[in-house]
UniProtKB/TrEMBL annotation:
<dbReference type="InterPro" id="IPR040476">
    <property type="entry name" value="CSD2"/>
</dbReference>
<keyword id="KW-0269">Exonuclease</keyword>
<keyword id="KW-0378">Hydrolase</keyword>
<dbReference type="InterPro" id="IPR003029">
    <property type="entry name" value="S1_domain"/>
</dbReference>
<dbReference type="InterPro" id="IPR012340">
    <property type="entry name" value="NA-bd_OB-fold"/>
</dbReference>
<dbReference type="InterPro" id="IPR011805">
    <property type="entry name" value="RNase_R"/>
</dbReference>
<dbReference type="InterPro" id="IPR022966">
    <property type="entry name" value="RNase_II/R_CS"/>
</dbReference>
<dbReference type="Pfam" id="PF17876">
    <property type="entry name" value="CSD2"/>
</dbReference>
<keyword id="KW-0963">Cytoplasm</keyword>
<keyword id="KW-0540">Nuclease</keyword>
<dbReference type="Pfam" id="PF00575">
    <property type="entry name" value="S1"/>
</dbReference>
<protein>
    <recommendedName>
        <fullName>Ribonuclease R</fullName>
        <ecNumber>3.1.13.1</ecNumber>
    </recommendedName>
</protein>
<comment type="function">
    <text>3'-5' exoribonuclease that releases 5'-nucleoside monophosphates and is involved in maturation of structured RNAs.</text>
</comment>
<feature type="domain" description="S1 motif">
    <location>
        <begin position="646"/>
        <end position="727"/>
    </location>
</feature>
<keyword id="KW-0694">RNA-binding</keyword>
<dbReference type="InterPro" id="IPR001900">
    <property type="entry name" value="RNase_II/R"/>
</dbReference>
<dbReference type="Pfam" id="PF08206">
    <property type="entry name" value="OB_RNB"/>
</dbReference>
Length: 734
């Protein structure tokens, strides 16, 4: 029997070879490559693969996509214009590049990321082709990594002498390889902070080393420290910063008082949250002989203690803001300053920086003065105590709101001052609203915690007249300080808090959603938009859709930020606005104090470039702190829901996607997801135009804003996920 001729096995065709070769040549477009170097980069060395590369190089040369610069050596013909932008990764692994040169974001498939990570500044080129209507691109170079540190769970491979860290962030699409000698003795399953050290060309995963072992996943301190570490935020002060702060002379001296306006005899008081320790603002009130009211807004003089070029100032600048987590405050300044020397505590003399206004009953400013002062606070009130004065129009503080736990009578002069300032604040507020300001009174979720920081209850914090009184006078100081400098000629560098107009496309989306609840917006002009947004926000108060509408309206707004380039503040309807009133917890306020004093002393305009860089840093740190604060609330909500596994809750559908329905529980504002896979009573399809899930057989529709009954399916503290089962729609009995 003749033996069958053995067929020569054909080696596999190299997939996507054209794009791969072009990508290699374009990535290092100043170098030339021969077929061997390309084969090496691809990790192939068999004859079939080499022949495919040789053939493809000739084809690309014939198409004039590459050129042969010397025999057998090729370079990309760069006709493509390269752009730079910021990569925004989705949880699915694809990304979008945000670039000012393009109206829409550029889609980047996961195989064209070329090791770029979320938030990285990247160089890319845009293809002519589109992906689902979006222009598509490929990343060619990483200009700047957004971050190099990640929080994750370590998996030790003891027999293999290495470990992998699985990042918590869904946007980090690769596990991080860690040699066993760089694990910092972490145990398998520990939560760690890992730093990226390298990402070799041929390695599938980046390499890293453990910087800190955070603890066991799910434990309270581990999870809170993980939130801070994820955003690169501190949780304690370096020893040298604490030591420097502790050595500061915080005494009030006659020599320093002589340099300041002495306002110790003016009636002065503070109104703050009942649990506050850092009182950075106080108000003084005097009725002048001419009938005008002299109102002083006195702010802790942090810049007196915080000298540029010191370790203390460097640390404050790096932090840029205090961080308010659900169970703690991570302060910008060490406690000796934040809760001590700079805190305007009652019956203590303090150095302050003041904005003093003389105004009439119509809130017309007849005189203004800015400068350094020394003040003495006669009394401290919680917001609830001041609210009691406003509501009762007496000087009686009832037991249930009293800071001392006992009913008492405050000084009649202070009660009169509170009542008059409340009256003036209401007038200033209505003037702002008429000018086109937008009233955001979003409900804040707060937790009652026991001694072990376990959530034992939820309550909602709303803004009442006492809060609004303080808010209006702080807004007045912030506006007038920035106006005083902003209107000077020649122009002087200053730190403004700006807020651009809302995006029209986002407003149109908002109209689609709120139209579901019978609300209508008017886009005719700037004032119409503002007044219809205010009408919307007041119409939804107390309704099931309030939190959803409040959240969506805030999302249509541009993000407020710090800059030296003033464009005004849309949300407040101010042409000039700055942050001046909270230097204990915000570094931009410290910068505002320094610049104001410099200009009051006749100094020249500060370097704009340096201050713009500081503004960008401050805006970025504020963004990270906000994300950490939200994560800590989400974490605590999930902890709270762990104890309510078998209960049914009434909720409102807050989002609908092709993978599930997001529901926010009305009684505690906890948001979770019902996976479409768990909706077994029918096969549901996502109807994007109606923001709904629709059952194929039954026609049952779950739509954005609908009330539904849900039950807790799963609580994941580590991933901060809350999963629900859909019980159904409420009946009349519910």
């Amino acid at each position: 029997m003749t033996r069958k001729k053995k067929r020569k096995s054909r080696n596999n065709k190299i997939s996507n070879l054209t794009n791969t070769i072009l990508s290699i040549l374009k990535k290092e477009r100043n170098k030339s490559f021969n077929y061997k170097q390309i084969a090496s980069k691809l990790g192939v060395n068999d004859a079939s693969s080499r022949n495919q590369i040789i053939k493809k190089l000739q084809q690309l040369k014939a198409k004039q996509e590459i050129e042969e610069v010397e025999r057998g050596k090729f370079k990309a013909i760069v006709t493509t214009e390269y752009h730079t932008g910021i990569l925004d990764l989705s949880a699915k692994g694809n990304g979008y590049i945000i670039c000012d040169e393009f109206e829409e974001d550029i889609f980047v498939a996961s195989n064209n990321l070329n090791k770029a990570l979320d938030g990285d500044e990247v160089e890319f080129y845009a293809y002519r082709r589109k992906h689902r209507g979006k222009q598509e691109g490929e990343i060619t170079n990483i200009i700047k990594r957004a971050k190099s540190e990640y929080v994750g769970t370590i998996q030790i491979q003891e027999k293999k002498n290495f470990a992998f860290v699985v990042p918590d962030s869904v946007k980090m699409y690769k596990d991080i390889f860690v040699p066993i000698n760089k694990t910092k003795k972490a145990e398998d399953g520990d939560k760690v902070l890992v730093s990226l050290t390298d990402w070799p060309e041929k390695a599938d995963s980046p390499y890293g080393k453990v910087l800190e072992v955070l603890g066991k996943p799910g434990e309270h301190s581990t999870e809170i420290h993980s939130i801070l570490a994820e955003y690169g935020l501190p949780h304690e002060f370096p020893h040298e910063v604490e030591a420097y702060a502790n050595k500061l002379d915080t005494s009030i001296t006659e020599e320093e008082i002589a340099k300041r306006r002495d306002m110790r005899k003016d009636l002065t008081f503070t109104i703050d949250p009942k649990d506050a320790k850092d009182f950075d603002d106080a108000l003084s009130f005097t009725v002048l002989e001419n009938g005008l009211y002299e109102i002083g807004i006195h702010i802790a003089d942090v810049s007196h203690y915080l000298e540029p070029g010191t370790v203390l100032d460097d640390e404050a600048y790096e932090r840029a803001t205090s961080i308010y987590l659900v169970d703690r405050v991570v302060p910008m300044l060490p406690e000796i300053l934040s809760n001590g020397a700079c805190s305007l505590r009652p019956h203590e003399e303090k150095y302050t920086f003041s904005a003093v206004f003389q105004m009439n009953d119509k809130c017309e400013i007849k005189n203004e003065w800015f400068g350094r002062t020394v003040t003495y606070s006669d009394a401290r009130f919680a917001y609830e105590e001041a609210q009691a004065v406003i509501e009762s129009k007496t000087n009686n503080i009832p037991q249930e709101v009293s800071l001392t736990g006992k009913a008492y009578q405050t000084d009649q002069a202070i009660a009169d001052a509170i009542l008059k300032m409340d009256e003036l604040a209401k007038k200033m507020r209505s003037q702002r609203m008429r000018s086109g300001a937008i009233s955001f009174d979003k409900v804040e979720v707060k937790f009652n915690l026991d001694e072990e920081a376990n959530p034992v209850g939820v309550f909602f914090k709303t803004s009442k007249d006492a809060n609004k009184l303080i808010e209006e006078f702080m807004l007045l100081a912030n506006r007038k300080v920035s106006e005083f400098i902003g209107k000077q000629n020649p122009k002087k560098t200053f730190v403004y808090r700006v807020h651009d107009e809302p995006d029209e496309a986002k407003l149109a989306q908002l109209q689609t959603v709120v139209g579901r609840f019978g609300h209508k917006l008017n886009f005719k002009d700037r004032n119409s938009v503002a007044s219809s947004l205010n009408k919307l926000l007041s119409d939804v108060v107390g309704k099931k859709e309030q939190n959803l509408v409040d959240t969506l309206t805030i999302r249509t707004m541009s993000k407020a930020e710090y800059t030296t380039q003033n464009i005004g503040h849309y949300g407040l309807a101010f042409d000039y606005y700055s942050h001046f009133t909270s230097p204990i917890r915000r570094y931009p306020d410290v910068m505002a104090h320094r610049l104001l004093q410099e200009y009051l002393d006749g100094g020249k305009s500060a370097n704009e470039e340096i201050y713009e860089e500081k503004c960008k840093h401050s805006s970025n740190m504020e963004y990270l702190a906000t994300k950490a604060e939200r994560d800590s609330i989400k974490y605590m909500q999930i902890r709270f829901m762990q104890d309510h596994q078998d209960e049914e809750f009434l909720g409102v559908i807050s989002g609908v996607t092709d993978w599930g329905i997001y529901v926010e529980i009305i009684s505690n504002k906890c948001e979770g997801m019902v996976s479409v896979r768990d909706m077994k009573d029918d096969t549901y399809d996502f109807d994007q135009s109606h923001y709904a899930m629709v059952g194929r057989k039954t026609g049952t529709m779950y739509q954005l804003g609908d009330e539904v009954i849900v039950k807790v399916k799963n609580t994941d503290l580590v991933k901060k996920h809350l999963d629900f089962y859909m019980v159904g729609k409420p009946t009349l009995e519910d």
